[in-house]
Amino acid sequence: xxxxxxxxxxxxxxxxxxxxxxxxxxxxxxxxxxxxxxxxxxxxxxxxxxxxxxxxxxxxxxxxxxxxxxxxxxxxxxxxxxxxxxxxxxxxxxxxxxxxxxxxxxxxxxxxxxxxxxxxxxxxxxxxxxxxxxxxxxxxxxxxxxxxxxxxxxxxxxxxxxxxxxxxxxxxxxxxxxxxxxxxxxxxxxxxxxxxxxxxxxxxxxxxxxxxxxxxxxxxxxxxxxxxxxxxxxxxxxxxxxxx
Length: 244
Prior knowledge:
Blueprint: E1 2-5, H1 9-14, H2 16-28, E2 32-34, H3 44-48, H4 56-66, E3 71-74, H5 77-86, H6 93-100, E4 103-105, H7 106-113, E5 126-129, H8 133-138, H9 154-159, E6 166-167, H10 183-186, H11 188-204, E7 209-211, H12 215-227, E8 233-234, H13 237-241
Helix pairs in contact: 11-12
């Protein structure tokens, strides 16, 4: 299976180890992975700020770079959701439609396409799972607690396969961390307070690490943790699943 690897710009610039872990994990699971070198931002920051027309060149670049792949996989739920909902190149509507449905977030690709049930991973630590909003409410990686419906969690399904890992219970397991992309700039005080609440929930339940499928949420929480000199660390789920 040939996979096109899409690494979001903030991961490329600030957390390259997440991209490396994603690549290594996919290769361990038998995928032939290629990384188109001319890829760049998916265009989400512009679109979320009300300037979607400024993302036209990003859309064209993405379409040109990834059209030949059966699957495109990315370790970022928010970027994947943006591409699924908004990727559009004028005059190439059919190609855009066909590409959108081939873009997968890493966790859903592992569970829904590769159907991984026996990961060879070990991470002997207490871990708190942060359910990022785009992944949970947009990509349906896990069930929302306010719904009267059967529970499921694709990230947990994978983490349960990691030897030695103990998932800690949280008081509010699917509450927003407050990052919200440009929201953390326009509503800084609200964003920080929401982040502090999420950090406190993990700390009070004894988590050594906080993990998530979105490094953007973890970046926000990491900033709060570092400012309060907490010993709790953040680690993208790809890094944990790739631990030998």
